[in-house]
Design brief:
The chain contains 7 helices and no strands. The chain has 178 residues and is mainly alpha-helical. The chain has a domain of 124 residues. It is globular, with a radius of gyration of 16 Å. It starts with a helix and ends in a 10-residue tail after the last helix.
């Protein structure tokens, strides 16, 4: 929980430095994670590798943030963040950083894709990269994609009832693709 409290504090500082809607949505996201994390269910199974991957994913910053984001990318970023927030709220007490079995969630955005929070996180980061395209940010996003795919694979092995869930919800992150 301390991790999310610190993340909230840093995101508040960043939002005051660059007061954009996306920055303040990051504050809301981190504050929501801190409160939900404090009430989460105990895990039946957990994965230490996944914990480290989750922490790394959360700590990987963009190398440079665009000072101005074109309106279409801002809208895409906001929609991506709304998907993240919706996913976190629906996960509720099942939320955690490390892949763990805290109960399978299959409602809300989890009806359509199995990992909507990761999809939202990656889409949000891609909107930032597209707004301030440079090679270093592109490399950071590729590393983040690799980490998230690794986390997905770990989660899918741990959660009870997951095989049945894959029959109802076919797509992992991107409908009709993967």
């Amino acid at each position: 929980m301390l991790f999310f409290i610190i993340a909230t504090a840093f995101s508040v500082l960043a939002a005051f430095g660059e007061p954009t809607l996306l920055a303040w949505m990051a504050v809301l996201h981190n504050a929501l994670l801190a409160s939900i994390y404090s009430m989460r269910r105990p895990a039946k199974n957990r994965n230490r590798t996944g914990l480290w991957l989750g922490l790394i994913a959360a700590l990987i910053p963009m190398v440079s943030y665009p000072s101005k984001i074109p309106l279409p990318l801002t809208i895409f970023g906001i929609l991506s963040y709304l998907l993240i927030l919706w996913s976190v709220i629906v996960l509720g007490k099942s939320f955690g950083i490390a892949p763990a079995d805290r109960g399978l969630v299959t409602n809300g955005p989890y009806k359509w894709v199995r990992h909507p929070m990761y999809m939202g996180e990656l889409a949000y980061r891609c909107s930032l990269v597209a707004a301030g395209l440079n090679l270093t940010n592109l490399v950071v996003v590729v590393i983040l994609i690799i980490i998230q795919i690794w986390r997905i694979k770990l989660e899918e092995k741990i959660i009870e009832g997951y095989d049945q869930y894959t029959k109802c919800t076919r797509w992992r992150m991107i409908p009709f693709v993967w």
